[in-house]
Amino acid sequence: MDVRQLTPDLWYWKAPHPKWREWPVDARDGRAWPERVGCVYFEAPEAVCLIDPLLPQGEEESFLRHLDSDVERLRRPLVILLTAGWHRRSADELARRYDARIDPDRLPPGIAEIPIRGADERQVAYFIEGPRALVVAEIFAVDSSGTLAVYPSPALTRPDELRASLEQIEALPVERLLVSHGEPILTHARHAVSRAIAEAQLS
Is 70 in a helix, a strand, or coil? Predict the structure, then answer.
């Protein structure tokens, strides 16, 4: 498991996805997506937040011991947020263990939700205000060459709505972009996001 502490209250980890061999290749370069996917831990003022969590295969016990310790230390409820319905991953198992809420109606303070519109499916981005981190599902990804690009959903039917969502994201003061697929962008992410949006093919 690859674990990175980005700020005192924000961590990013990668874990192997059990179904990665079933994914289509990246249409931009014809290569397979990496096996490991990104997940986020954030200590919000009123909750411990996990975004798109996936327990690392073979390291589950160690991971859960650390998470148990954090939840006990902070004495805050655990909240699980999903950027997309297909990112449920280990959410149900963790929700049972910690009596946690998945996608609650009220987000913890300090986290804003940006809907990714244009398709008849739920996909959102989360902006964590303190560390200025944007967490995404597949609307942004980094390919094998390290290039950030916009990846519209195959279900996209309303490009104008998607463009409006991307403009909302572009206006945010994003410093870190935490992607599910590829390497995260940990400094000056706003510039990379703007360039990817400018080059996006949305029709």
Answer: helix
Distances (CA, A) of 106 to 95, 161, 179: 17, 24, 23
Helix (H, G, I), strand (E, B) or coil at 11: strand
In a domain, 116, yes or no: yes
Cα–Cα distance between 29 and 125 in angstroms, integer? 25
Model pLDDT for residues 110-168, shown as the tens digit of each residue: 999 999 999 999 999 999 999 999 999 999 999 888 899 999 999 999 999 999 999 99
For 106-140, the DSSP string reads SPPTTEEEEE--SBSS-BEEEEETTTTEEE-SSSE
Radius of gyration of the chain (CA): 16
The pTM for the full model equals: 0.95
The answer to whether 89 and 52 are in contact (CB under 8 A) is: yes
Element (H, E) at 189: helix 189-198
Residue among 82, 138, 89, 148 at smallest CA distance from 111 = 82
The verdict on residue 82 lying in a domain is yes
Q: Is residue 119 part of a domain?
A: yes
Which CATH number fits the domain that encloses residue 43?
3.60.15.10
Give domain status of residue 29, yes or no. Answer: yes
Maximum pairwise Cα distance, the chain: 49
